[in-house]
TrEMBL record:
Alphabetical keyword list: FAD, Flavoprotein, Oxidoreductase
Lineage: Bacteria, Pseudomonadati, Pseudomonadota, Alphaproteobacteria, Hyphomicrobiales
Keyword Flavoprotein listed: yes
Residues in FAD/NAD(P)-binding domain copies: 16-311
Gene3D superfamilies in UniProt: 3.30.390.30, FAD/NAD(P)-binding domain (3.50.50.60)
Domain Reductase C-terminal: 335-417
Protein name per Swiss-Prot or TrEMBL: Oxidoreductase
InterPro entries in the record: FAD-oxidoreductase/Apoptosis (IPR050446), FAD/NAD-bd_sf (IPR036188), FAD/NAD-binding_dom (IPR023753), FAD/NAD-linked_Rdtase_dimer_sf (IPR016156), Reductase_C (IPR028202)
Length: 426
């Protein structure tokens, strides 16, 4: 595989992007689309071109899909747009005073602007047996391909973690006939992400799919000699497993920034334009911690939408240079999705702080809508197989439209009609 050089002189100064995932790719693409003419170099730890991660835990692990189907753009895109893409390399240090980054190859690369799009890494569980053959994690395409290959001779799978990734994988493996046990330390699924009502719905549906869900317990050890044969749980029980997936969440890759003297707190701290305390250095995507007007606190979001929107904002800021007055602060409405078997969960807003949930639009075939409030303020909407309400929810939050709990609680409440009435009143 070849990667394009940008034709610039070796000592050319421009924008360096640390990270070749969705966020890093998007900032480079948006810079060129916006007319940026200086050099752009992406330094990517991964050995491949930038690709989509969401399919890894869904269709990719249960099919023989080729890797190229995941690519964000082919090699020719980088050549045509004069973007230097350097795979299998890392930024190891930032010298802010001299204005360069030190690469794992030993090279020093100068920058006018540095974008940290270094993402996150899987949380490592300190449990016995995690290095046995048959124990997997899932973050990269290589991880997915290793997992897919391991499934050939595996029939019983234990998944440590009942979040999005764990449940997506569980549903995908049940669809191809594997016996799956999901072990979740909390007392409900997706506890940090969705309301209790939606969590309860997915618990019931996964059990209907035939998945064994164990709540309120954790994997305490992985058993086997050379290869995994079972896991023991903190409640003392043992679950047979010839393959284990550890899906215990992620931690932000903020060490590079911290070592470079930049502020971090569960991520790289940035302002409303994604700038760190050094105005030449930005952070975006899974590694960036910023104040969200929707959560009313500092958050770090792990979503494609967040990565893309922040990347576009940073590209606009770099192009604007010192004339940043016209660049609006980051206020993109957060939204997320998770495909679990036949159910598409979509979330708009930050619903984790809700103290009241109105289930206002139940339907046949596993369709539901949950309006999540804190007091009388709508924080967001969680939907299952109801894309229409999800899209309307994005509009509500983007336009700061007010919907009261009492209105949603009405038996005949219709969101589309309600928004039309608001528009007519306006």
């Amino acid at each position: 595989m070849s990667f394009a050089a940008n034709g610039s002189k070796p000592d050319a100064v421009g924008t360096v992007v640390a990270g070749g995932g969705q966020a890093g790719f998007q900032v480079a693409a948006s810079l060129r689309q916006g007319g940026y003419s200086d050099s752009i170099t992406i330094i990517s730890q991964e050995p491949r071109l930038p690709y989509q991660r969401p399919p890894l835990s869904k269709t990719y692990i249960k099919t023989d899909a080729a890797f190229d189907s995941l690519l964000l753009k082919p090699d020719s895109f980088f050549e045509k747009n004069a973007i230097a893409y350097r795979p299998a390399e890392t930024v190891d240090a930032i010298d802010r005073e001299a204005g360069f980054v030190a690469l794992s190859s030993g090279e020093r690369l100068p920058f006018d602007h540095l974008v940290l799009a270094v993402g996150a890494s899987n949380r490592v569980l300190p449990i016995e047996g995690r290095d046995l053959a048959g124990v997997h994690q899932l973050r990269t395409a290589e991880d997915a391909e290793s997992l897919r290959a391991g499934l050939t001779d595996a029939s019983t799978i234990a998944v440590a973690g009942g979040g999005f990734i764990g449940l997506e994988v569980a549903a995908a493996l049940r669809a191809i006939g594997k016996e799956v046990t999901v072990v979740e330390a909390a007392n409900r699924l997706m506890g940090r992400t969705v309301s209790q009502e939606v969590s309860r719905f997915f618990l019931e549906e996964h059990r209907k799919m035939g998945t064994d869900i164990r709540l309120g317990t954790a994997v305490s050890a992985i058993l086997g000699r050379e290869r995994v044969r079972a896991v023991t749980l903190s409640d003392g029980s043992e679950v047979a497993a010839d393959l284990v997936l550890i899906a215990a969440g992620v931690l932000p890759n903020d060490g590079l920034a911290r070592d470079g003297g930049l502020a971090t707190d569960n991520g790289i701290l940035v302002d409303h334009h994604m700038r760190t305390e050094d105005p030449r250095i930005f952070a975006i995507g899974d590694c960036a911690a910023f104040h969200s007007p929707f959560a009313e606190r500092t958050v770090r979001l792990e979503s494609v939408q967040n990565a893309v929107d922040q990347a576009k904002l940073v590209a606009a800021s770099i192009i604007a240079g010192e004339d940043t007055a016209a660049i609006a602060p980051y206020r993109a409405v957060p939204w997320f999705w998770s495909d679990q078997g036949p159910f598409k969960l979509q979330i708009v807003g930050m619903t984790a702080g809700a103290d009241h949930v109105e289930m206002a639009a139940l339907g046949e075939g596993g369709k539901l809508v949950a309006y999540c409030f804190r007091g009388d303020k709508l924080l967001g909407i969680e939907t299952v197989n109801r894309p229409g309400e999800h899209m309307l929810g994005r509009r509500i939050l983007a336009e700061d439209l007010v919907i009261a709990r009492s209105e949603v609680a009405a038996e005949d409440f219709d969101l589309k009609a309600h928004l039309a009435a608001l528009k007519n009143r306006g």
